[in-house]
Write a structure and sequence with these properties.
The protein is α/β, with parallel strands linked by helices. It has 6 helices and 11 strands. The chain has 2 domains: about 10-80, Translation Initiation Factor IF3; about 90-190, 3-Layer(aba) Sandwich (Oxidized Rhodanese, domain 1). It has helices at about 20-30, 45-55, 95-105, 115-120, 130-135, 155-165; strands at about 10, 35-40, 60-65, 70-75, 90-95, 110, 125, 130, 150, 175, 185-190. The strands form 3 sheets. The chain has a 5-stranded parallel sheet with strand order 5-10-9-6-8. It has a 4-stranded mixed sheet with strand order 1-2-4-3, with helices on one face. The N and C termini lie far apart (about 35 Å). The model has no long low-confidence stretch (mean pLDDT about 90).
């Protein structure tokens, strides 16, 4: 990638979801249209998170460089008239709702859209791992006729995933909030 003229930079090294997106949104609000923001982050999830956020809002995601495990994201702010309204997926399922269904033995299709390492260290019982960055390429593994509960750490990645699934014809999808960050139910771990 040739040199990109960067107007502002923010450091999100060491921060996990949702902080890179939160800090990026805040900084973009301070910038002028046409300016480019460089976001540095070490969280692998930031790749899908920032690309998805920029696409959803309408900002131009210029590209990504990885240097020694640090992701350098480049995002150009667009004119206010060209931005999309920031929507939140309206269909929510709480952690308590999930716990009740699991306790009752009800069938529930859980999709965990966190990164593989996050999933490995602990996920909701029965959840399958499909990281947000892989979701579009793995839609064939899912049935549009089934009901799904989508979970991440805080509800941000799962919100993006629910919007993508809805766009692709999956009408029975719920975003699990607040997600794994506040999950008190039983967890499974991936043994190495």
């Amino acid at each position: 990638m040739s040199a990109i003229k960067v107007d502002l930079s923010i450091d999100c090294v060491g921060l996990a979801c949702p902080l890179p997106v939160v800090k990026t949104k805040k900084k973009m609000d301070e910038m002028n249209a046409g300016e480019v923001l460089e976001v540095t982050a070490t969280d692998k999830g930031s790749v899908a998170d920032l690309q998805g956020w920029a696409k959803r809002i309408g900002h131009q995601y210029i590209g990504l460089k990885e240097v020694n495990g640090v992701f350098h994201h480049f995002i150009r702010k667009v004119e206010a008239a060209d931005r999309n309204a920031e929507l939140q997926y309206p269909h929510i399922m709480t952690n308590e709702d999930i716990q009740k269904k699991l306790k009752a033995g009800d069938k529930i299709n859980l999709i965990d859209v966190r990164e593989p390492a996050e999933y490995a260290f602990g996920h909701m019982t029965g959840a399958i791992s499909i990281p947000l960055g892989e979701l579009e390429g793995r839609l064939g593994e899912l049935s549009p006729d089934d009901e799904y509960a989508v979970v991440c750490r805080t509800g941000i990645r799962s919100d993006l995933a629910c919007q993508l699934l809805l766009e692709r014809g999956f009408a029975k999808v719920k975003n699990v909030k607040p997600g794994m960050a506040e999950w008190t139910g039983s967890i499974e771990k991936v043994e190495s």
